[in-house]
Amino acid sequence: MNWQAAVSLFGSVAIIFLIGLMASRKQSESTSFIQDYYLGGRSLGGFVLAMTMTATYGSASSFIGGPGVAYNEGLGWVLLSVTQVATGYFTLMILGKKFAIMTKKYNAVTMVDFLKERYQSKAVVILSSISIVIFLFSAMAAQWIGGGRLIESLTGLSYNTALFIFVLTVLVYVTFGGFRAVTLTDAIQGSIMFIGTLVLLIAVIIAGGGIPAIITDLQNVNPNLITPFGADGTLTPAYVSSYWILVGVGVVALPQIAVRAMSYKDTKSFHLALIIGTIVVGVIMLNMHIIGAFARAIIPGIEIGDKVMPEIALNVLPAWVAGIVLAAPLAAIMSTVDSLLLLVSSTIVKDIYINYINPEAAKEKVKKISMTITAGLGIIVYLIAVNPPDLIIWLNLFAIGGLEAAFIWPIVLGLYWEKGNRNGALASMIVGILSYILFHSFYPEPFGMHTVVTSIVLALIAYIFGSVMVKSKPLAGVERG
Amino acid sequence: MSQQKDYRFSIANREALIGIGLVLFNFIWWFGFAYGLGSADVSEYHYIFGFPAWFFYSCIIGVLIMAVLVFFIVKKFFVNVPFDDEELEKR
């Protein structure tokens, strides 16, 4: 066990955790518990908004998994990963002011709230709530497993102990802190990621004897490592380009991202977030994947991709610095997990309980239920992560693409196409999810592109067809764009 | 209310179109340099600051140029609008 690294790692995490708790104190003064707990009272500033978007999105898969794949595939995987720079500006520009204005008018707190008011349909609400709970729940379990593994490989604690520490930290501050605590800790975690990857990249370049030397080394290992086509030339332009949809443009439809696009204070913060977000996402994605690709030249022969980040950090940095830098991937996982947890909880409390079970619930009761559900969910996920069932692992494969295929058109066309109606939205969600699962299982990667592309196209056809062919009566009170 | 167009929506629509324009530009820049320069044989690669030229232009300059573009476009073309109803009525 590396004590120095472990101490500075846990130290950094503890500081983040304390700030989350302090933020939760501020919360009790405000009037609407639901607005505050799940949306931070719509008061995010530009910096916090940009950072929370980045941190929520930069999850375990991109932080731990990504550099591991770049280690094996070389610069071609870095090329694929920079497609994510689009999330920095595109998501916010598309949802943009319109989403914030509409959700404020509707008094919407969640993405489902927005869909409910826009389409005025019980079926839309129930279908979208269920898909959010199922998909995000399994995504969350996968992240927790990742968090446990990271602590395990860094400190040498057993997986179960590591997982327990991880879960306890996250649970305490999400349960008591709510959205404000989550976004604030996200801002710190985003900053750690930004600075951490920068420090690590510089250290890697120095350790490797400069960029030209590293590139020559890579070329000697396998010339394909410095081409855009991956280690064995299998990354085709069509496949790599389709990641523009999966991790770039499609991110608009992820509920954990969309909810952030309605939580900012004013358009000034929004503009600032666009600028900061683009720079921060771009730099983090570029750095961290270059680190992964370059690591191959410095420590060859790492077999498990997930170990690339921890090993390279411990190799090129003093142990205590490595601990702080590695707080970044841990921070990334934590911030993804905490926002997912809160989102699943808000879906259950706000979209199902308050909508259909007890619309008249008093503030104190809602508060109690929100916290209980958040904590309860966390405990269930913990039990799942201790011994993950196959079903969860299977579902997790579909989580991101499935949510994108389900929600992209109901949200985007719901905002910008006034003829879109509930039939279109329902058809689009059903076709999106089903086609994604079916293609993924039986005919993966049609046309050489990631499966999500086909499903999004089919979902678009379904949305338009459903809206135009099966007209529903225009509803009083539906806002026209 | 439902028939009357909110003036803020035309601003929002224009900004969404700018977003689409930016992402298209981003994609063309990224694709053009990556596969335009990267498809050559490795022995014919040029290098800039040690990076293969395709990578340097497509990824490093690509990210940089998007950051700069977003900065100028937001500063120049994005308009502040009020979110509060009272502020709206003053207009």
Automatic annotation (TrEMBL), chain A:
GO biological process: sodium ion export across plasma membrane
Entry GO CC: plasma membrane
Main location: membrane
Keywords, alphabetical: Cell membrane, Membrane, Transmembrane, Transmembrane helix, Transport
GO molecular function, one term: pantothenate transmembrane transporter activity
Domain of life: Bacteria
Pfam family, one: SSF
Residues that span the membrane, as ranges: 6-23, 44-64, 76-95, 124-145, 157-179, 191-215, 235-258, 270-299, 319-345, 366-385, 391-417, 424-443, 449-470
Protein's cellular compartments: Membrane
Membrane topology annotation: Multi-pass membrane protein
NCBIfam families: panF (TIGR02119), sss (TIGR00813)
Stated family: Belongs to the sodium:solute symporter (SSF) (TC 2.A.21) family.
Identification of the protein by name: Sodium/panthothenate symporter
Source organism of the structure: Gracilibacillus oryzae
